[in-house]
Amino acid sequence: MIELFFAVLGALFSVVNPLGAVPVFIAMTPDYTVTERNQTARSTGIYFTLILLGFFLAGTQILAFFGIHISAMRIAGGMMILSSGYGLINGKFAENRAINKEVEEEALQKEDISFTPLAMPLLSGPGSISYLITQYNEKPSWEAHLTIAAVIVFLGILVYLILRSARYLYRILGEAGLKALSRIMGFIVMSLGVQYIIIGIMQLIQGLK
């Protein structure tokens, strides 16, 4: 289970890419006090955790309700993850998560930006949600489910710590450093997306035999 924990953590961290959210978080909180920024980071981490836990636990029921086969979810999820990785490599993390100038301007006028646009869609998007739903079906044991749930909670804590330290990280790494890390993660994410698409297609072909 330790191997599963770190395998899921590595994949999910790459797909979520909380480091890529640092510049966006700073841009959306220019006039916040330290206390307000810390509170926003904490609320974002909590919302992020609840959103992913909700979809992870209820994902199978959602698929069944709409009559979606898990293979189709793998292919669609792989395409979303692939698109997310492509956006990371091209330095378009925010745009790929539907965060444009209009959204940023709207966020500047909102009293609370922790749920939207920070927790969703910036951090928890279609890529991470489809990945978790697929993991739930691929690893049906309750031990695996508890392990993956623990990963989500741990990642929520990491999101909080990273956003809380956003200004320090930006000062240390700079725009170039954050983009370099995002490109590295983008390559990993694209590889993960391609893998999911291949597995989904192979399962569909086997189902037709």
Give a description of the structure:
With 209 residues, the chain is mostly helical. It has one domain. The protein contains ten helices and no strands. The radius of gyration is 17 Å and the shape is globular.
Concise account of the structure shown:
Helices cover 85% and strands 0% of the residues. The longest helix is centred in the C-terminal third of the chain and has 43 residues, at 166-208.
Observed structural traits:
mainly alpha, 209 residues
What's the arrangement of secondary structure elements?
Elements: H1 2-16, H2 22-28, H3 34-66, H4 70-89, H5 93-96, H6 101-109, H7 114-123, H8 126-138, H9 142-164, H10 166-208
Any idea what the shape is?
A: globular
N→C terminal distance: 34 Å
Order of helices and strands: HHHHHHHHHH
Number of domains: 1
Instruction: Please tally the β strands and state the result.
Output: 0
Number of helices: 10
Helix percentage: over 70%
Low-confidence stretches: none
Rg (CA only): 17 Å
Rounded mean pLDDT score: 86
Largest sheet: none
- Give the amount of beta strand, in percent: under 5%
Counting helices, strands and paired strands, the structural category is mainly alpha
